[in-house]
Structure formats: structure tokens, C-alpha cells
Design goal:
Layout: H1 36-62, H2 65-87, E1 89-93, E2 96-100, E3 105-109, E4 113-124, E5 131-141, E6 151-152, H3 162-180
Antiparallel strand pairs: 1-2, 2-3, 4-5, 5-6
Helix pairs in contact: 1-2
């Protein structure tokens, strides 16, 4: 007796671009998956935090509660950093576009956006100061407002994954075309 709900075969029946029937359209969603560099960085941070938590237990059993508290707070900060690293990126909803950075978040209503375009320009490699020639997804704001670069093909989500960058940029452009015309 086949049990299709227990196999991976049924997972890929739906197209990647289609929303699930139970998905709330008003929720913020990322139009792409986190890239391998971002996931690897978060995994390393979580591994470090596991060792830090083990050190916290050892310090606590040694009898210094102050040191254990400091080690616990430090390990929880590393766990929080790993989770924040996974949340960074571009999120969209019918109300607007949200660019989540490691330390800051900026939301922009669709009414403030004139257009979303892919352009060739120097981009930062993995967010470091070094720049290389690449593609970026940029916003054109109303009245010539300077808006941040959304995605690049050399960031932690799309490095060496040009097709994934094109797909994600196309989805963000489609959301912009669909919701810029709808009054909020």
C-alpha cells in the first residue's frame, strides 16, 4: 500500500511560484530561498553557540554563577545572530516591500516605488567592502528618491547561482507590477 504523504514525491507536485492554498496573502514572504552561503554561516554560528552552551554548563557546575550567566548571555547572543542572519533579505507583501538587514529593517510601501529594475553595476561581494561587476535589483522611488539596492547576484543568497537571482528578481518585479497599481 503506497503512502504518498510519507514520500518526497508529493512535495514537488506544486509549482515553486504558486502560493499554497492555505497561505495568507497578507503575510510578509521572501520570494526566494536563503542561499547556501547564508545557511552555512548560520550553521557555523549555531555550532559555535552549542560549544558555548556546553562551556556554560561546565562553568555552572564549577560553581561560578556569574561566569555561567555571562557565558549563557553570550551564547544566546550568538544564537540570535544566527537567526537574524537567516532572516535577512527582501520580503514582500501586498502592503509593500521590506529589506531586512542584519542590524536594520526598512519597509517601503508600493505607492512610494516607481519601478523595480535589474541593472549592471559594481556590487559588494558577500557584503564585504570589495566590489565586483555584477547585477543588482534596484528600486526607483517617487520623485527620484534614493532607495537601497535590494538584491545582488554576489550576495550570500545568490553567489554562483545566477539562475536563482534571475528568478528572484523576476518575482520581486512581478509583485511590484501587481501591487503598485493597487491603491493601499
Amino acid at each position: 500500500m503506497p503512502l504518498p504523504f510519507l514520500t518526497a514525491d508529493g512535495v514537488f507536485d506544486a509549482h515553486e511560484d504558486e502560493a499554497l492554498p492555505h497561505a495568507d496573502p497578507a503575510r510578509w514572504r521572501r520570494p526566494y530561498r536563503p542561499g547556501p552561503w547564508r545557511v552555512a554561516g548560520a550553521a557555523v554560528l549555531l555550532l559555535v553557540s552549542a560549544f558555548m552552551l556546553l562551556a556554560t554548563v561546565i562553568i555552572a557546575f564549577a560553581g561560578t554563577t556569574g561566569g555561567a550567566a555571562v557565558a549563557a548571555v553570550a551564547s544566546l547572543a550568538v544564537v540570535g545572530s544566527a537567526l537574524r542572519l537567516l532572516r535577512t533579505g527582501v520580503w514582500v507583501s501586498p502592503s509593500g516591500l521590506r529589506r531586512v538587514g542584519f542590524l536594520s529593517t526598512r519597509s517601503i510601501a508600493w505607492s512610494e516605488i516607481d519601478g523595480v529594475h535589474k541593472v549592471q553595476q559594481p556590487v559588494r561581494w558577500l557584503g564585504l567592502p570589495r566590489t565586483v561587476q555584477g547585477q543588482a535589483l534596484t528600486l526607483a522611488g517617487r520623485g527620484g528618491a534614493e532607495l537601497p539596492v535590494l538584491l545582488t547576484d554576489h550576495n550570500a543568497d545568490f553567489l554562483a547561482r545566477g539562475e536563482a537571482f534571475d528568478r528572484a528578481a523576476g518575482q520581486v518585479e512581478a509583485w511590484a507590477e501587481e501591487y503598485r497599481a493597487v491603491p493601499a
